[in-house]
Amino acid sequence: MRPIWTGTIGFGLVNIPVKLFSATQGSELDLDMLDKKDLSNIRFIRVNEKTGKEVAWANIVKGYMLNSRYVVLDDKDFETASAVKTKVIEISDFVQQEDINSVYYETPYYLVPEKSGVRAYALLKQALLKTGKVGIATFVMRNKEHLAILKATEDVMILNQLRFSEEIRDIKELALPAAATVKPGELKMAVSLINQLSGKFKIDTYKDTYTAQLLKLIKTKAKGGKPAIAPMKVVHSKAKDLMEQLKASLSVKSKKAS
Prior knowledge:
This protein is an alpha+beta fold. It folds into two domains: 5-33 and 49-166, Ku70, Chain: A, Domain 2, CATH 2.40.290; 184-197 and 207-253, no CATH class. Helices cover 25% and strands 26% of the residues. The chain has five helices and nine strands, in the order ββββαββαβββααα. It has helices at residues 75-81, 118-131, 184-196, 209-222, 242-257, and strands spanning 5-11, 14-22, 62-66, 69-73, 88-96, 105-113, 133-141, 144-152, 157-162. The chain has a seven-stranded mixed beta barrel. A hairpin with a 2-residue loop joins strand 1 and strand 2 (14-22). The longest helix is centred in the last third of the chain and has 16 residues, at 242-257. The protein is extended and about 65 Å long. The two termini are 47 Å apart. The relative contact order is 0.12.
């Protein structure tokens, strides 16, 4: 596994050299875009808007339009804008993780210490585990500043990128219906159903079954077979009364458990 960023963790006056690794990988199938006529691969090219000719990567630069003209930027310009932020994951605060709304979570990364930072890394990891807190940090990667939390596990520290508050859309943009009245009896029954379906969270029990089914369909087509069509139907409960639906749900769960 190759690191996607190298720098340090800024913890007070302590600097911990680290490498950043992606903690995720896609589970979806790698599908290619093809021309329907002859199944040739579709290739995307970078074209000069004026000449219509393809432009090599080596000749592509980044620019910002200012006062009707482009100001061209190179890698050194991005680092010069904030040399510290491009190389340091700067911890500013420590908070309880449960205080952070899950809507802000975005991308997780693994942080691995360089040889010179092993002791300081272990110290910070153990301190976070002992206090049960996470660090709030900022850093720059790919020419963009990111907000993140630094969380310790027994094996490794995880940097989980967060969205800034301005990146979350206001719920006022939603056409929410008026609040409905909930009957005490219905609430009690719904709580019973939740309790009946409750258990310890085990991530390994959840699988990407859609990808497996799609691959099965692909193999069937490859052999010349015709996949069975199973159209999705919206099934409406025979019991229109909400209480009856809840009772039926509890009954179904009870039968499965027996």
